[in-house]
Amino acid sequence: MPHAVRPRTLPRPGPAPAPRPRTPRVRSLIDADALRVLHRAARVLLDDLPQLTDGLVAALQEREPAYRAAVEDDATETWQEVHRSLRHSISSLLDPRGARDAARRCSWKIGATRAEQGLPLDALLHAFRLGGSLVWQGLVDETSRTAPEDVRLLVHVASDVWDFVDEHCTLVADAYRQTERQLAWRRENRVRLLAAALLDGTSRIADLPEAARALGLPEHGRYVVVAVAGGRPAGCPGAQAALAPGVRVHWHTGVDADHGIVLVEDGTESVVPKERPAGARVGVSSEVDGLSAVGEARRLADTALSLCPEEGGTVHLTEHLPAALMASSPELGAALAERLLGPLARLEPADAEVLLDTLATWLACDGSAQRAARRLYCHRNTVLNRLRRYEQLTGRSLSRPTDLIEVGLALTARTLLHP
Predict the structure, then answer these.
(1) Could you state, in chain order, the average pLDDT of each consecutive group of 10 residues for the chain (419 residues)?
(2) Model pTM score
(3) Which residues sit opposite 252 in a β-bridge?
(4) Euclidean distance between CA atoms 284 and 242, whole angstroms
(5) Is there a single domain that holds both residue 177 and residue 36?
(6) Are 230 and 281 within 8 A, CB to CB?
(7) In this structure, are 100 and 158 located in the same domain?
(8) The domain containing residue 249 runs over which residues?
(9) Are residues 309 and 172 in the same domain?
């Protein structure tokens, strides 16, 4: 007969599923006498319910290790729950129609509660069958004591008793699995909310310890955020293929990009491998201290991602700071480009393009006109003449450090604005 163990916190009420139809069986005339014997013994068990409860609690402690801790933790609550379940179960033997719904609700609550408490389902089902065995043995013992000649009649109702036990084992398993699925969804949703808050920079300080536990990452440590878009390989969890093996990371899947909160541990050469999934665009932030700074790292990773070429590539923010500066403030970048390069717009487009290409190549060659000329397939003097022409048109001096810095930033901004 089903038993129960009372939890310290009651589960959320859930609707018990509709009773499963049972195939009717043809009863013999002797069944009436068998039911009389069953009811007589069941009434005695109901009167002796405290003693029966003590026996089941003791059996649980002895035979089911998973229940031992629950009994030892709160013996009173456990006893009361077992008592309640046995009462519903034995009452169902006496009045199957009137007591059935209450017994089902009791068993459903047990399954849901034990799932919330983490008791293994196998242990729960074992306990239910153990309770059934104890009740059945009680019926047999009581009949043997008072009317030994009627023991044989119990055979005719044995299938009803064990069908009841099986039905409630199925019911409690359904409640357990449904609650387990709900709990898993809540945990996953909570983890997602915690990760989203970290990445958005809206996480509360008080939530950081919980976030650290949920994500499996230390609250205090060095982190980078990796933003990955495109080229997500089939069969790979999230964008894990974009990272080096063994890296500790929590992935948060987004619409336009996946974000990985990556722990940078001592001895880690790089969190991003040289080879990456085909077509993937990867942006890597600079390092930050602690989970509380992950929101800033996510912003930097998104900036690095915006610098990646469309065909794919990896951009480490720390290696592209000037470009990141311009990408972070496109309005200021556009104003700087207009101020430093705007005068060239009065030229023929082809002529302006030649000057801009020469200027960019000369800067890429560390100010060497000779090397720039080799790249541009022209004479060194041609390079110098084009540079002087730029100075004349803009009033800037490429020998002045401040002007040179602004020209470099203006060219970077132009590239970002007009890729």
Answers:
(1) 40 49 48 90 94 92 86 83 90 90 94 91 91 93 92 89 91 96 93 94 92 92 90 47 73 89 73 61 91 94 88 86 82 85 88 91 91 92 92 89 88 78
(2) 0.63
(3) 259
(4) 11
(5) yes
(6) yes
(7) yes
(8) 221-319
(9) no
